[in-house]
Design a protein that fits this description.
43% of the residues lie in helices and 20% in strands. It contains 27 helices and 25 strands. Strands 10-9-11-8-12-17-7-18 form an 8-stranded parallel beta sheet, with helices on both faces. A 7-stranded parallel beta sheet has the order 21-22-20-23-24-19-25, with helices on both faces. Helix 5 (150-182) packs across helix 7 and helix 10 packs across helix 12 (333-341). The radius of gyration is 30 Å and the shape is globular. The chain starts with a strand and ends with a helix. Residues 26-36 have low confidence and may be disordered.
Length: 788
């Protein structure tokens, strides 16, 4: 018999929620407080005496014909007082308890579920519920008690489970339809060389519940090679839900199209793409409360019906479908999409929905939850820096000072709390010349907890919308900092620094993200990391999961190596000591000679905007009449980016067959995630090794690994830089029909430390100088024309 497991908390929050979405009140943080109050839980439980049973696991199976629902959870406490048994439900909150006049209905419903289960188990005719609210700052306690007969609880619980069974009946019927459709699905294309082995490796990894790292060169067809075996694995019961994670909108679209191709064969699969709140919000300004947003008012009264209708009428939940359904039911499209994701078979989304502690889908990844999830992580090299950002946090001294000045006329208590935090940061500021590592934060976290409590009180009382917004902004920054502080361990460094604009901040910097990422990945069955740039693979294993026994595979490129020329210019450098008009002139001459041998479109990738200006300026002085120049500019909007790319996709008139040279910044918006096939791009000139700019945080990262007897320079500079180089070079050859030149301009590319990071597809690269680059390029194009 199939079994659908659900926690008590998830059940009651899903079925019994009502009312508005409202970001105006401090209660929003209480959900997080519940997760953080475990220490206080234990303290309260320990104070209740030896007869108090703490953390009692309770389960109740609910038969539904061909399957059963298993409701389970842990009661915080069970005790007997004057021959009356009570279930104790403890909630840690930041709110002043004087505002808690009665139990929150959803909280009390959790306790009632446990009361029903325990009374049923022990044949009790009556049982009590005690709601214990504890302020996390002051440790003050307020309790509420109520008695229920078993008959009352039975009627209430039966109604609750009957409501939930409607969803489970649908889910089971859909699962049978889905599973029956998977068997007939076949790989939608003829397998390219190595592609079948790649898909088989993904399937075996899922089958063994392991992790795999795939270096997948452009053209391998990595999206379908991961999606197809994952779907097949679901068909064999090896997983239940696929998360396709990527940092780029374009790759989310490619993943969506991959599922659509399989569905054309008759696959029944509910696929949803999650869009960021700011991008899917129908209003000009995202302000989630009933005063400013008509979709927020009464959202929870309508959203379950909206989701159920959508689930039963469609299996494709694109952005447009979600917006239309939200408009029909007058609900928030973002929140509705998150609810719909619970019932989807595949979720295509950004990394943060799985990993970011401030944004992850708590429906799937909260403490104590686990599922048969299959994680497909595209462009996984991006997860290193993204992970560091997600698990780091900072606070600015000026934010405390500015709010303190605002609050002087409104709240003495809050002003004093702000002053305490500002005073501590002032001490650090006086000791800091530019960047200062700290061994600890001292009493600062306690000051922050006091401040959070005072801000909670203020938000309960204040009716001033502008002031409330200012308090709420800092409040969320403080709460985020506190959440990250709870994670600080040997993988972190704490430092203070002056920002470029002169502001002073303290930062919790997560350097090795493996433990934090693994915390989320371990909630699923298997993980597939894949990218065209996962070299060296041990570096990524160490940072993305820390499990060095994970599988690894280098997918073979199906492209003809003879159609690609990789040249290393050894008589030029982008080192700081060599930069100047003479060197820029040599680089410009290289560009002229390479682009002059075959008319077409070329991109030049520069280390920075400053060098882009200098090199493009030098090139403009020698630019042939038939060659056109365009340059990326800082802060390009979406329309400008599209216009820039459009120039590469335009076919010039045959009579004016000209050459286009586009100057861009390496690691920027045109260095990754763009797809210029065929004649859209026939050459890439890469200036420099892509080394990140020397800065305090990079030096901290370098020191972190040096202190562990590892190559800190490689971790902080060489490998991240080469990743940008490889991504830029990957813009040239996109299909089996493509032909092109990759020119690496820096003598450091001749060093072994860089060449060991070259991909296998660059085998046969050649050295060149300004004297012979024209000859080598002309010879390559002549050989290409001869073979055609």
């Amino acid at each position: 018999m199939d079994e659908i497991k659900i926690s008590v908390r998830t059940l009651v929050e899903f079925i019994l929620r009502t009312g508005d979405i409202d970001n105006r009140y401090g209660q929003m943080a209480d959900k997080e407080a519940m997760q953080m109050g475990s220490r206080l839980h234990r303290k309260i439980q320990g104070s209740m005496g030896p007869a108090y049973q703490a953390e009692v696991t309770l389960r109740d199976p609910w038969p539904c014909g061909s399957y059963q629902i298993l409701v389970e959870g842990r009661a915080d406490g069970i005790f007997t007082e004057e021959n009356q048994t009570y279930i104790d439900e403890i909630k840690g909150v930041y709110r002043n308890l004087s505002y808690v006049e009665e139990p929150v209905p959803v909280h009390e419903s959790q306790a009632k579920c446990y009361a029903y289960m325990y009374a049923k188990q022990k044949n009790l005719e009556e049982i009590g519920v005690q709601m214990t609210y504890c302020n996390l700052e002051t440790e003050d306690i307020r309790r509420f008690r109520r008695l229920y007969t078993f008959q009352e609880l039975t009627e209430w619980y039966t109604h609750l489970l009957t409501e939930y069974q409607k969803w489970c009946d649908f889910s089971q019927e859909w699962k049978e339809t889905r599973q029956a459709s998977i068997g007939a699905v076949v790989f939608p294309f003829p397998y390219r060389e190595g592609q079948k082995d790649l898909a088989a490796a993904v399937y075996r990894t899922i089958q063994r519940q392991k992790k795999i790292f795939i270096q997948a060169p452009t053209g391998v067809g990595k999206t379908m090679s991961t999606v197809f075996p994952a779907v097949k694995a679901v068909g064999e019961g090896l997983g239940e839900k696929i998360f396709y994670l990527t940092a780029k909108t374009i790759t989310r679209t490619v993943a969506w199209e991959a599922f659509q191709l399989l569905k054309e064969q008759g696959l029944h699969y509910k696929v949803i793409t999650l869009t960021a709140k700011e991008k899917i919000c129908p209003l000009e300004e995202t302000d989630c409360n009933p005063l400013h947003c008509p979709y927020a008012k009464g959202h929870f009264d309508r959203v379950n019906d909206a989701v159920f209708e959508m689930l039963t009428q469609s299996s494709d939940f694109s952005r447009d479908v979600i917006l239309a359904q939200a408009e029909k039911w007058n609900v928030c499209p973002f929140e509705m999409s998150l609810d719909a994701s619970v019932w989807a078979d595949a979720i295509i989304c950004d990394y943060n929905y799985v990993f970011d502690p401030r944004a992850r889908l708590k429906r799937f990844f909260s403490e104590g939850t686990k599922g048969a999830y299959l994680f497909l992580i595209d462009e996984a090299h991006n997860l290193v820096d993204r992970g560091r950002e997600m698990f780091s946090a900072e606070l600015y001294k000026e934010d405390f000072l500015a709010l303190k000045k605002e609050m002087r006329q409104h709240s003495r208590k809050l002003t004093r709390s702000l002053e305490a935090c500002n005073r501590q940061m002032l001490e650090w500021k006086r000791e800091c010349e530019d960047c200062q590592l700290l061994d600890s934060l001292g009493a600062f976290p306690i000051s922050l907890m006091n401040l959070a409590g005072q801000m909670e009180d203020f938000l309960e009382e204040s009716q001033d919308p502008e002031l409330r917004k200012k308090v709420l902004d800092l409040y969320f920054s403080v709460r985020s900092f506190q959440d990250i502080y709870d994670r600080v361990d040997e993988n972190y460094r704490i430092y203070t620094k002056f920002a470029e604009d002169g502001r002073f901040y303290v930062r919790l910097y997560c350097i090795n993200t493996a433990a934090n990422l693994l915390e989320c990945l371990d909630k699923g069955n298997s993980t597939v990391f894949f990218s065209a740039t996962l070299l060296p693979v041990k570096y990524y294993m160490g940072l993305l999961c820390g499990q060095m026994d994970s599988y690894a595979i280098y997918a073979k490129s199906p492209f003809d190596r003879e159609k690609k020329l990789v040249l290393v210019g050894t008589d030029v450098s982008s080192r700081y000591t060599r930069r100047g008009p003479k060197e820029y002139g040599k680089i410009a001459e290289y560009i002229r000679k390479v682009s002059g041998k075959k008319r077409g479109n070329y991109m030049v990738f520069c280390p920075s905007y400053r060098m882009l200006e200098d090199i493009s300026g030098a090139f403009s002085e020698i630019c042939p009449p038939e060659t056109e120049m365009i340059c990326q500019t800082s802060g390009m909007n979406e329309e400008e980016r599209e216009a820039f790319l459009e120039r590469f996709q335009q076919k010039p008139a045959e009579s004016t067959a000209h050459t286009l040279v586009g100057f861009t910044v390496m690691g920027g918006i045109f260095g990754e995630g763009i797809d210029l096939k065929g004649e859209s791009l026939i050459g890439a000139v890469i200036v420099g090794t892509g080394l990140p700019q020397v800065c305090s945080e990079r030096e901290i990262l370098k020191g972190f690994y040096d202190n562990r007897s590892q190559d800190g320079f490689s971790y902080a500079y060489t490998i991240p830089g080469m990743n940008k180089v490889l991504q830029s070079a990957g813009r040239v050859i996109r299909t089996a029909e493509d032909t092109g030149v990759i020119l690496l301009l820096d003598d450091r590319f001749a060093q072994e430390s860089y060449q060991r990071l070259f991909p296998l597809e660059w085998a046969g690269y050649r050295y060149c100088t300004l004297r012979n680059v024209e000859e080598q390029t002309a010879l390559f194009w002549a050989e290409v024309e001869k073979s055609d």
